[in-house]
UniProtKB/TrEMBL annotation:
It is found in: Cell outer membrane. This is RagB/SusD family nutrient uptake outer membrane protein. Keywords: Cell outer membrane, Membrane, Signal. Its main location: membrane.
Length: 472
């Protein structure tokens, strides 16, 4: 799998490199399909789409999304000894940070693969492809994948180049950054096309369906520079009415025995590195257990938040404590005799990971109705309470629009910890600077993150700036 990832990365370098030798530009563009050789049949179209899905099984989607969503935020410390992770944790990452560079590369590689589907599948003349509308389904799934990648890019970097076709010239390779509102507009166009094209159900929750697209549209409209709460409410309702239901046991969501359950909307499908597809999730190996200092250590602040809420079920399902006193490493935040590890990824490399699940969307609907009117908190309350009741908690005491905002923020934090959402919630609500600069260690000492507006976004990777001066 890693070999495939590196080859994909190499293709990205070719796609974005600034090399301008005439012999390179004279060659057949690599987005063109050689007639009679590849991708001329319905089976070839399916292979193209499988490549777009398969490229998601890279370090971004099986690891870095948690670093970016939870370590950047107040849910986890970097842990381990990886300098790139530690810089992200401490808000000192610069343009040479290894994670920043590889995440940019992986996301644009995913976009390249989606673009290849969108460019080539319309030209395949095999009539089998139009039976049952399969051609449009494939195009819709690829459009949703592209939108999802840009959704990550725009939230992490802000303005980014919009690459909507495989580059065929030096000008295409050096596109300037598009403003944030234009990136969001393209994301919404792709998702609206996808919603009209994709299936309602699929063989597993790893495939884009209408539920996935409705959920993404709800999240995108909530995250845009000018949130459209009516649209958030509309698309959240479509998800909630789409046949999903909260799974009975919160802990059971993460046991490894309930993959593709009733609550799951979009879920990474792993079968282990030795399995049929070779798709494994290496998060369990780096965040669970002892023997060496693990990555993504739960914060004192998150554990205190669980305790203050009396949230025993979600705390135990999310965090486990072990005695690591005999280990040969040290830690700045926790005593080794009672050291916390993430517990949501507790099994071997066959553990699936949720991209979106229903509780996320229920709480997002609660946020929408709370924002739509001053009295919306009363409509939000039963939604929040529905999520709380599953884990044995009483109703939220929030009784105003302002208090409900904070109640929903807290509920999302405790419900979705270590699933890659927290940092993006803090960004879209404008609370990131306030929350992060108030962070303290277990002894009450300020962690002095000194977050400013300039530190809320990743820097453009230096290797990309070298290839594309228009990205500055």
């Amino acid at each position: 799998m890693k070999l495939k990832i590196y080859l994909s990365g190499a293709a990205l370098v070719l796609a974005t490199a600034g090399g301008c030798k005439k012999d390179f530009l004279d060659k057949q563009p690599f987005n063109q399909v050689t007639p009679g050789v590849a991708f001329t049949t319905a089976a070839g179209a399916e292979k193209l789409l499988a490549g777009a899905y398969g490229s998601m099984y890279n370090d971004y989607h099986i690891w870095d999304y948690m670093v970016n969503g939870d370590v950047t935020a107040d849910n986890a410390y970097a842990g381990g000894d990886n300098p790139a992770n530690i810089q992200i944790d401490l808000f000192t990452a610069n343009s040479t940070n290894g994670n920043v560079s590889r995440d940019w590369g992986f996301l644009y590689s995913n976009i390249k693969n989606a673009n290849e589907v969108l460019e080539n599948v319309p030209n395949i003349s095999d009539p089998v492809l139009d039976q049952g509308g399969r051609r449009n389904q494939i195009l819709g799934e690829a459009s949703a994948i592209r939108a999802y990648m840009y959704f990550h890019l725009v939230r992490l970097w802000g303005p980014v180049p919009l690459v909507l076709k495989t580059p065929a010239s030096l000008e295409d390779m050096q596109k300037p950054k598009s403003p944030v509102n234009e990136v969001y507009a393209q994301i919404i166009r792709d998702l609206e096309f996808a919603l009209a094209s994709v299936r309602s159900t699929a063989p597993n929750k790893g495939i884009v369906t209408k539920g996935v697209v409705n959920a993404l549209l709800a999240k995108v409209h909530a995250s845009a520079p000018a949130p459209d709460w009516a649209k958030v409410n509309q698309y959240a309702d479509a998800v909630i009415g789409g046949g999903y239901s909260l799974f009975g046991s919160f802990d059971g969501l993460f046991s490894g025995n309930n993959k593709n359950n009733s609550e799951s909307i979009w879920e990474m499908q792993y079968d282990g590195y030795g399995g049929p597809t070779g798709r494994g999730n290496w998060m369990p190996g780096v965040i669970v257990g002892t023997g060496w200092k693990r990555f993504c250590t739960p914060t004192n602040d998150l554990v205190a938040a669980f305790d203050a809420e009396g949230d025993v079920q979600r705390k135990n399902a999310s965090v486990t404590f072990k005695n690591a006193a005999s280990e040969g490493w040290s830690d700045n935040y926790w005593p080794k005799a009672n050291y916390p590890y993430i517990n949501k990824y507790r099994n071997d490399d066959k553990t699936n990971a949720y991209i979106i699940r229903l509780a996320d969307i229920i709480l997002l609907k609660a946020e929408a109705v709370n924002e739509l009117s001053a009295g919306g908190w009363a409509q939000a309350k039963p939604l929040v309470d529905q999520v709380r009741s599953r884990v044995g908690l009483g109703g939220t005491p929030a009784a105003s629009q302002a208090s409900m905002r904070l109640a929903i923020e807290k509920e999302r934090r405790l419900e979705l910890a270590f699933e890659g959402h927290r940092w993006f919630d803090l960004l879209r609500t404008g609370r990131a600077i306030e929350v992060m600069n108030a962070q303290k260690d277990g002894s009450g000492n300020n962690l002095n993150y000194n977050v400013s507006a300039q530190k809320l976004l990743f820097p453009i990777p230096q290797n990309e700036l070298d290839r594309n001066p228009n990205a500055r």
